[in-house]
Q: What sequence folds into this?
């Protein structure tokens, strides 16, 4: 044992002498790390950095760095980076203002999958309600409390719960995209409580009111349009976008293929219905076929009078020169016709609700009503017009009296 101890004592001075050979102190070499394992180093400004290498799509490599207060914390952070890399949770995207992400997500990612009208609505909410409060916050520093504060503020300003829910949809989907791209570790909107959505009472025309409206529009240049709105429940944009090639007067049918909406800065734009069920075929009663034939004959007269200034586009309900009818002008016309008929003011969209309600009260099967309206499933139809069903139950349940001889 003593010999071993003496040997150790003899060797130690030799290592020290070797380290100070030629008067220079040798720095011990650290074990080499594999490329990508990462490193910790000190910058010239004194700050410590933990850095790890990442391989991105296409084979390109880049470095992910995080600052530390000292070397020990640097190695702790490096270990966290390595763990996140193995678990595929490492945040690799650039830090950016929340506005930059929202703009990119809406314009480049989400816009191709939504209708023009939905895009217009999203763009308006983004500009007026989201960006002023959250736009300049760095994406990685966005907190759930900031989003909740925005919702509370908008609710205080009496923005409708449905609009706040739409804002939440925008934020949630944009942040979900950011998580997938590894810009942020989690979606802060995931567990936020939203205001209760209160269902607005639906305004519809009764049978007598509908007949009164049709009496007032008799002979009006848009008589056929209002008749179709009441009979088929077609949306305003679907009626404005209707072309003669979509109508088969011999068969008595309409094929809904497009919708027209106003896009800020772009004017009137065509787009396809947002769902497959929205692109639908609607069979017409004879009264609607006759009205369309009369409308086409009247349109021929207008075309002849317009002469060379007419621009033929095959549009059914066109303006004086053959182009698309401005939806805003249609709303003004509808409002004046309601006033002339001494009927309560309703939205044009309420003609769609009126059509569904009248069809159901006439005993048309809900499945058929679903197909006419273009709902994606019957649950939407039943949920939207459930107020009609109790009145139908009384007549149906009365059949038990007939069965039991009541």
A:
């Amino acid at each position: 044992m003593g010999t071993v101890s003496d040997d150790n004592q003899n060797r130690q001075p030799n290592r020290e002498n070797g380290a100070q050979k030629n008067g220079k102190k040798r720095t011990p070499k650290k074990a080499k790390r594999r490329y990508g394992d990462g490193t910790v180093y000190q910058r010239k400004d004194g700050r410590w950095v933990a850095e790890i290498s990442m391989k991105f799509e296409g084979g390109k490599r880049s470095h992910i760095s995080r600052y530390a207060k000292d070397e020990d914390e640097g190695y702790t952070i490096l270990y966290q980076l390595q763990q996140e890399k193995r678990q595929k949770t490492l945040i690799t995207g650039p830090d950016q203002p929340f506005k930059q992400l929202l703009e990119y997500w809406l314009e480049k990612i989400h816009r191709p999958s939504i209708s023009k009208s939905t895009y217009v609505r999203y763009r308006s909410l983004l500009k007026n309600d989201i960006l002023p409060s959250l736009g300049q916050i760095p994406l990685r520093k966005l907190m759930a409390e900031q989003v909740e504060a925005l919702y509370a503020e908008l609710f205080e300003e009496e923005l409708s719960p449905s609009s706040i829910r739409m804002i939440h949809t925008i934020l949630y989907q944009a942040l979900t995209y950011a998580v997938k791209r590894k810009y942020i570790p989690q979606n802060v909107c995931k567990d936020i409580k939203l205001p209760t959505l209160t269902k607005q009472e639906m305004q519809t025309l009764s049978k007598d009111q509908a007949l009164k409206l049709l009496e007032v529009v008799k002979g009006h240049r848009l008589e056929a349009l209002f008749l179709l709105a009441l009979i088929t429940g077609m949306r305003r944009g679907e009626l404005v976008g209707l072309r003669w090639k979509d109508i088969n007067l011999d068969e008595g049918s309409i094929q809904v293929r497009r919708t027209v909406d106003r896009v800020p800065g772009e004017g009137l734009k065509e787009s396809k219905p947002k769902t497959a069920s929205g692109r639908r075929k609607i069979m017409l009663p004879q009264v609607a076929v006759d009205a369309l034939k009369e409308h086409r004959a009247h349109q021929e007269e207008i075309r002849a009078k317009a002469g060379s200034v007419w621009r033929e586009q095959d549009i059914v309900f066109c303006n004086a020169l053959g182009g698309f009818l401005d939806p805003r002008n249609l709303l003004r016309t509808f409002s004046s016709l309601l006033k002339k008929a001494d009927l309560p003011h309703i939205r044009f969209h309420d003609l769609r609700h009126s059509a569904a309600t009248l069809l159901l009260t006439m005993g048309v099967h809900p499945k058929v009503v679903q197909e006419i309206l273009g709902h994606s499933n019957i649950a939407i139809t039943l949920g939207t017009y459930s107020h009609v069903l109790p009145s139908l139950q009384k007549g149906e349940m009365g059949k038990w009296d007939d069965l039991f001889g009541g």
Summary: Strands lie at 39-42, 48-55, 61-68, 247-248, 253-255, 259-263, 267-271, 281-283.
